[in-house]
Specification:
InterPro entries: AAA+_ATPase, ABC_transporter-like_ATP-bd, ABC_transporter-like_CS, Metal_Ion_Import_ABC, P-loop_NTPase. The protein is of the alpha/beta class. It is built from eight helices and twelve strands.
Length: about 250
């Protein structure tokens, strides 16, 4: 791992326009090249707000946030993507090139080559010309990952990327994320799944303020999970705790 962090948050806070209280506060953490970070927290706990800060959609209201010049690539939940545009999987992947170009430029031959290679990398080399809206949910999610690969940012943000995926798509995506970290990118994944969080290098627990940050072995203690999720905990059996998400138990511990 790099000795120098590629992302530094020092007591960062942020509010939405017109809000009386911060949406997030007390964010203090570092991400180094090669780190896989699970961002854990309830709905409304600040995971999306953090990602908006990191992509520049929301201004820092306090503290210090140091980011790479090329910012971050963002992979949204596929269910929030528009499906009615007549674009192919290749078209969507190629959109990743736009973020690193001057406004007057258009993607060229090298960008199209990178987009094709990125689709092959996520297992969609045979679906490049397929309509994005006609792909399965897992395939659309992988196209959005390919778009982030084309963006070629040092930090990749993923908003619950495994939600609704079948086992095959989940396994393939996990491999791609490990490869990105091995290449020296920082990978931050918002999740409700405690088991997925345990597989990360670091865990950032949020509930409007930073609850904890560190390796999963020391961070995912019961008291931390209780502070992170509050009443959204359910006993599933002896020594087993689950997180309630939208009324259903999430990952078990």
């Amino acid at each position: 791992m790099s000795a120098q962090p590629i992302l530094v948050a020092d007591d960062v806070a942020a509010s939405y326009p017109g809000a009386r209280v911060p949406a997030v506060a007390s964010l203090t953490f570092e991400v180094r090249a090669g780190d896989q970070v699970a961002v854990l927290g309830p709905n409304g706990g600040g995971k999306s707000t953090l990602f908006r800060l990191l992509t520049g959609e929301l201004n820092v209201g306090g503290g210090r946030l140091d980011l790479p010049a090329r910012r971050c690539a963002f992979v949204p939940q596929t269910e929030r993507s528009r499906l009615d545009f007549p674009v192919s999987a290749l078209d969507v992947a190629l959109m990743g090139a736009v973020s690193r170009m001057a406004w007057w430029r258009r993607p060229g031959r090298a960008d199209r080559k990178l987009a094709r290679a990125s689709l092959k990398r996520v297992g969609l080399g045979d679906r490049m010309d397929a309509s994005f809206g006609n792909l399965s949910g897992g395939q659309r999610q992988r196209v959005l990952v390919a778009r982030a690969l084309v963006q070629d940012a040092p930090i990749v943000l993923l908003d619950e990327p495994f939600r609704g995926l079948d086992a095959a798509s989940t396994e393939l995506l996990e491999v791609v994320l490990r490869e990105l970290a091995a290449e020296g990118r920082g990978v931050l994944t918002a999740t409700h799944d405690l088991e997925q969080a345990r597989g990360a290098d670091l865990v950032l627990c949020l509930n409007r303020v930073q609850v904890a940050f560190g390796p999963p072995q020391t961070t995912l203690r019961r008291e931390v999970i209780e502070r992170t999720y509050g009443g959204n905990l359910v006993e599933l059996g002896p020594d087993v705790t689950g997180v309630l998400t939208d009324g259903h138990p999430g990952g078990a511990s």
